[in-house]
């Protein structure tokens, strides 16, 4: 028997990117269930209000999720749409990650008004990013560049580039593409040069564990391949205690029945970079992620992470 919900309310942050993502899900649900009222509940989260400090210093990713969860608990909304990258590894009861959708471009993008790519930047050029993951890889590959923090939503960040505060900035390609800003991308960093964050480019939908009705209604939006990849990626972060406070990257791809996961942990200054990789059957996605995490752990990831947490 098919599930025909009468009403579905989507909680979303108010940023342009979050709204695009929520409207994307809204349109998919409306197409699936023409008789259903699919509406948005737009909210401002603490993460959106804190613009003056580096996110890694104010408690990280959970900031973008909490207010939306309150709306789920209150019954003001039935589902919350997130960039999966911003979703904590363990949502914890009574919440669950109901669906992982098809992944967009997972790469990081190089954005500049003067240069084509990172390799073209001269000594001392200023690159904007507040991601320790991006910072560590830039510093490791291009030690002659200056990395300067960059906060705010996508429009704010682009504005700071345009007013000359930076020679170039690094942003997720997926966000720019979703907002129709793909012409701002001068080049994409290769997966090898800038290994993406766990879940980058994928959308996740969160609901209450108790809402089996919503879970069933959302299943057609699920992408099993992306789910397998992000399961492996999130297993790495989960084991190593990753959040956006640590320079941790994890990226998986599927080839036929085979999944390959690559991950790294680094010091933000790029002087130490630990890498690991594992391949195996797609069905073992979580285990493959765990294998990679344990290999990084044995190689000294715990010491790197401890150094960072004590700073
Ligand atoms: N850290 C913020 C964030 N969370 C999700 C995206 C967009 C890309 C995605 O969906 O992964 C971005 C922007 C960015 O990193 O430049």
From TrEMBL:
Residues 8-214 form the Porphobilinogen deaminase N-terminal domain. Coiled coil: none annotated. Binds 1 dipyrromethane group covalently. GO terms for biological process: protoporphyrinogen IX biosynthetic process. Gene3D superfamilies: Periplasmic binding protein-like II, Porphobilinogen deaminase, C-terminal domain. Belongs to the HMBS family. This is Porphobilinogen deaminase. It comes from Advenella faeciporci.
